[in-house]
């Protein structure tokens, strides 16, 4: 009885894994087929001849080098700016009493609740009036700080014992030095969590670069890849899947090495 | 507390600047635009009172849009809650294969929605998609998963459940692990049945989390855009047009910035109600732990 149960559990687990992982297998399998083989019935799982050239074709089907550079610049630009703006703000909210603190905290919390899907239109108009529409600035600046990061880090900073800070202040350490040399190292897990979360959501983002760009100049990889689905000559699914493999692989590699941290980063609380 | 009272303002200024310029001000500007008529090009933005609101509320497509959004949100949230709870309880065990299953279930969540949408678009292709081939093995004629107006919405719901189920499942697993062990030990001493343990311990202890994920899932699904833009473009015949997609179309394709903003204010109202609920639950949840 318990043996049968064990086997059934195993089968169930394998089924669950297949259900969630198989589409990725299908993605990779389709990406190395010929066009003819993608259209064959019955479909094949392992391609007859691996068409590694598909990745070259996908890469050359648009200015993908530009898209990749844009993606990297946007993602890392946001990460750097977030560290610069989020860490000191979280410290001030956690460790200072000052006039207007309540109002400034309220602004932060309100920001936390405003999804970009709600305000993209007025932001678009604003960026356009500044003349930075269709530029990387339009993709970086709105994310230059993060209310969620401030919220998370503030809680971590509040747990640092006062004695450590007092000792540093007796040594005449500047406030900025306290933030960088004491608070940051003590809060490393929270900061890594925040950065992983930001990295993945910026790298994957489709909505914002789609809305804020009008030409290929500032488009990022997800937008470039998504454009391949519409073509006058019909969609070559092998090429489209090859482009998606290029988009997915970096994230899957990061996931493989930092699975625990990533899951923690996302399930910390409900903000997507 | 500290004497250099200028320091906190300097520390907070950059963040508040970003929030004011890119979140708070645009929100107010959207409210302003919703009472004005503008096509993006003209110099004048005449005040039109409630005209934009009257116009969207007399537009049958807008009602269809709101209905689609609610339908999408309802089914997505219901399926997630119904599946995630038993899945989490089942996967919350020690052992390599359970860890692997948790990792697999979560993996779609970190993949770009672009790739998720395009993979499923290919699998759901009418003529050459894998899904129609599988269905044909059971003698069913090919289904227009994304091209049949009666089916397309459910295909999108399926894809979003597939993508985000792991996220919610792992939140529940984290909640399960924080339930005090002695409750289960006490139940074991009393020789309580499995169902009794679930209905008297596990479920009540999970209620705040279940409520919490329902609201997040609801807030997230009401803002759906990417899957729709990529997989169906709002079609066939508007059957998958949702609120954000409507705002996008009104603003960027029809240049009706006033009505688009009014629709945005409707979305804001819905989200505000849900957010108030969210914070109520959040405070309860913190209390629970």
Description:
The complex is a heterodimer of chains A (272) and B (289). Chain A has 14 helices and no strands. Chain A is an all-alpha fold. Chain A has a domain at 62-227: MetI-like (MetI-like fold). The model of chain A has no long low-confidence stretch (mean pLDDT 89). By secondary structure, chain B is mostly helical. Chain B has a single domain, classed as Orthogonal Bundle (MetI-like fold). In chain B, 72% of the residues lie in helices and 0% in strands. Chain B has helices spanning 7-33, 51-57, 60-91, 96-106, 113-123, 130-137, 152-177, 181-189, 194-222, 226-231, 243-253, 257-288. The longest helix of chain B is centred in the first third of the chain and has 32 residues, at 60-91. Chain B is globular and about 75 Å long. The mean pLDDT of chain B is 89. Chains A and B meet through helix 1, helix 4, helix 5, helix 6 and helix 11 of A and helix 1, helix 3, helix 4, helix 5 and helix 7 of B.
List keywords for this structure.
heterodimer, A: 272 residues, mainly alpha, MetI-like fold, globular, B: mainly alpha, 12 helices, 72% helix, MetI-like (chain A), transmembrane (chain A), MetI-like_sf (chain A), transmembrane helix (chain A), Carbohydrate ABC transporter permease (chain A)
CATH H level, superfamily name of chain B: MetI-like
Number of helices of chain A: 14
Radius of gyration of chain A: 24 Å
Under the CATH scheme, which architecture of the domain at 62-227 in chain A would be assigned? Orthogonal Bundle
User: Would you give the CATH topology of chain B?
Assistant: MetI-like fold
The helical percent of chain A reads over 70%
Percent helix of chain B, as a range, is over 70%
Strand content of chain B: under 5%
User: What oligomeric state do the depicted chains represent?
Assistant: heterodimer
Low-pLDDT windows of residues of chain B: none
**Most residues in contact: chain pair:** A-B, 87 and 93 residues
């Amino acid at each position: 009885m318990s043996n049968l149960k064990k086997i059934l559990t195993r089968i169930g687990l394998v089924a669950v894994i297949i259900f969630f992982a198989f589409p990725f297998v299908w993605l990779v399998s389709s990406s190395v087929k010929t066009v003819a083989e993608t259209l064959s019935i019955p479909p094949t799982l392992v391609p007859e001849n691996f068409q590694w050239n598909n990745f070259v074709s996908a890469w050359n089907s648009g200015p993908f080098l530009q898209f990749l550079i844009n993606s990297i610049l946007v993602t890392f630009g946001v990460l750097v700016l977030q560290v610069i703006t989020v860490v000191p703000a979280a410290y001030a909210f956690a460790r200072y009493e000052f006039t207007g603190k309540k109002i400034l905290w309220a602004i932060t919390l309100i920001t936390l609740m405003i999804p970009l899907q709600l305000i993209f239109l007025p932001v678009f108009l604003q960026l356009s009036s500044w003349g930075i529409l269709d530029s990387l600035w339009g993709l970086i600046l709105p994310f230059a700080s993060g209310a969620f990061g401030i919220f998370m880090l503030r809680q971590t900073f509040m747990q640092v014992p006062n004695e450590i800070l007092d000792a540093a202040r007796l040594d005449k350490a500047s406030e900025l030095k306290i933030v960088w040399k004491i608070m940051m190292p003590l809060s490393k897990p929270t900061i890594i969590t925040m950065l992983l979360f930001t990295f993945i959501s910026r790298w994957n983002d489709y909505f914002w670069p789609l809305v804020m760009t009008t030409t290929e100049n500032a488009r990022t990889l997800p937008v470039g890849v998504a454009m391949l689905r519409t073509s006058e000559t019909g969609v070559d699914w092998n090429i489209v899947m090859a482009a998606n493999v290029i988009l997915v692989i970096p994230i899957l590699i990061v996931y493989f090495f930092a699975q625990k941290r990533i899951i923690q980063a996302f399930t910390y609380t409900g903000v997507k | 507390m500290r004497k250099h009272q200028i320091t906190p303002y300097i520390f907070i200024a950059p963040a508040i600047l970003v929030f004011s310029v890119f979140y708070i001000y645009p929100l107010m500007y959207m409210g302003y635009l919703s009472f004005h008529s503008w096509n993006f090009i003209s110099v004048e933005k005449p005040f039109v009172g409630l005209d934009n609101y009257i116009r969207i509320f007399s537009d049958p497509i807008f009602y269809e849009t709101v209905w689609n959004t609610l339908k999408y949100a309802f089914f997505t949230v219901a399926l997630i809650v119904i599946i995630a709870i038993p899945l989490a309880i089942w996967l919350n065990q020690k052992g390599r294969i359970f860890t692997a299953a948790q990792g697999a279930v979560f993996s779609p969540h970190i993949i770009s929605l672009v790739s998720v949408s395009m993979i499923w678009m290919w699998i759901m292709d009418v003529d050459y998609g894998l899904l129609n081939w599988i269905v044909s093995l059971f003698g069913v004629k090919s289904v227009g998963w994304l091209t049949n107006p009666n089916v397309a919405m459910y295909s999108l719901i399926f894809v979003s459940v597939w993508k985000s189920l792991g996220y919610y499942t792992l939140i529940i697993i984290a909640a399960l692990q924080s339930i005090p062990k002695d409750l289960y030990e006490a139940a074991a001493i009393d020789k309580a049945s499995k169902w009794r343990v679930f209905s008297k311990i596990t479920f009540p202890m999970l209620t705040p989390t279940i409520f919490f994920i329902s609201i997040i899932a609801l807030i997230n699904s009401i803002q759906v855009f990417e899957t729709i833009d990529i997989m169906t473009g709002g079609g066939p015949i508007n059957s998958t047009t949702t609120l954000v997609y409507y705002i996008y179309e009104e603003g960027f394709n029809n240049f009706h910035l006033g009505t688009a903003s009014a629709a945005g204010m409707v979305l804001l109202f819905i989200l505000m109600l849900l957010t108030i609920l969210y914070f109520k639950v959040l405070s309860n949840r913190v209390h629970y732990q």
